[in-house]
TrEMBL record:
InterPro entries: Dabb, Dimeric_a/b-barrel, HS1/DABB1-like. Residues 63-157, 173-267 form the Stress-response A/B barrel domain. Homodimer. This is Stress-response A/B barrel domain-containing protein.
Length: 277
């Protein structure tokens, strides 16, 4: 079972898994300490709590829906364009708060070579089900998606305290992570992992938003049970976090014994004009 000490250590690094290694690290990895000191040219007695501090936006409960697609080899580009544009057009449906369908920018780790992704957000499970069963959605799946894909997987979870905009701005870089937790571990492991993920955003300024949860629609998840979405302003901000190689390596070392599989991929939220590309 993932110890509380490991969970606390894990919270000092971004929850990204480019690869899961089965070998132990050859050098001692220690998390870098956080500098909590403050400097000021004013005497200490003049330092007061600011009355104009930025107010944190209220948290919202959101249902996250992620679908990964593997488009068939040699598929005509026009058919892929139609699939993406048709999926993005579903943003006009009332049960949809946000939707992005896009090519995968980088597949970092996956047993299946997925090529495209759909990410949508909904304000409740009932509205998510209304979207899933909507005739327009079913028509797009039947006419534009299924005929051109070889494989797909999907995870859905409830984010009870999503901070920030429900619709990530166009150009945002998004990292999606799916985790397959070993079956023989205690029930508390998933809760500890989720708690670690939720605390990451406060420690890394480059991450605009973190959402995570446990899948509630088994059958399309291929055994993966935990999912997370990390939103960055752009690819450069994402790469700056990735550059902290020592912390990433430490993180993999701490969690590898609790996982049977991982999927990690990045995509860029398309603009309305380019969403069909």
């Amino acid at each position: 079972m993932l110890s509380l000490r490991a969970a606390r250590s894990l919270s000092s690094s971004p929850f990204f898994f480019p690869h899961i290694s089965t070998s132990s690290p050859t050098h001692n990895l220690k998390p870098k300490p956080f500098n909590l000191s403050f400097s000021s040219s004013k005497p200490a007695t003049t330092l007061r709590m600011s009355t104009t501090t930025t107010t944190t936006p209220p948290a919202t409960t959101t249902v996250e829906h992620i679908v990964l697609f593997k488009v068939k080899d040699c598929t005509d580009q026009a058919k892929i364009t139609t699939m993406l544009s048709s999926l993005n057009a579903l943003s006009s449906l009332d049960p949809v708060l946000h939707i992005s369908a896009a090519p995968i920018h980088r597949l970092r780790s996956s047993p299946i070579p997925f090529t495209h992704i759909l990410h949508s957000r909904h304000s409740s499970k009932d509205l998510f089900q209304a979207y899933a069963s909507h005739p327009s959605h079913l028509a797009v799946v039947t006419d534009s998606v299924r005929p051109i894909i070889d494989d797909a997987m999907a995870l859905d979870w409830v984010a009870p305290d999503l901070q920030g905009p429900v619709a990530p701005p166009p150009g945002s870089a998004v990292r999606v992570t799916f985790l397959k937790v070993k079956e023989n571990l205690g029930d508390g492991v998933k809760g500890e992992i989720l708690g670690v993920i939720k605390g990451i955003k406060d420690r890394f300024g480059g991450i605009d938003q973190i959402s995570c949860g446990e899948n509630f629609t088994p059958g399309r998840d291929k055994g993966y049970s935990i999912a997370s979405v990390a939103v960055f302003q752009g690819l450069s901000e994402m790469e700056a976090v990735d550059a902290q190689e020592e912390l990433v390596n430490l993180q993999k070392y701490l969690v590898r014994d609790h996982l049977d599989g991982v999927v990690v991929l990045d995509f860029v939220v398309p603009s309305p004009q380019s969403s069909s590309l």
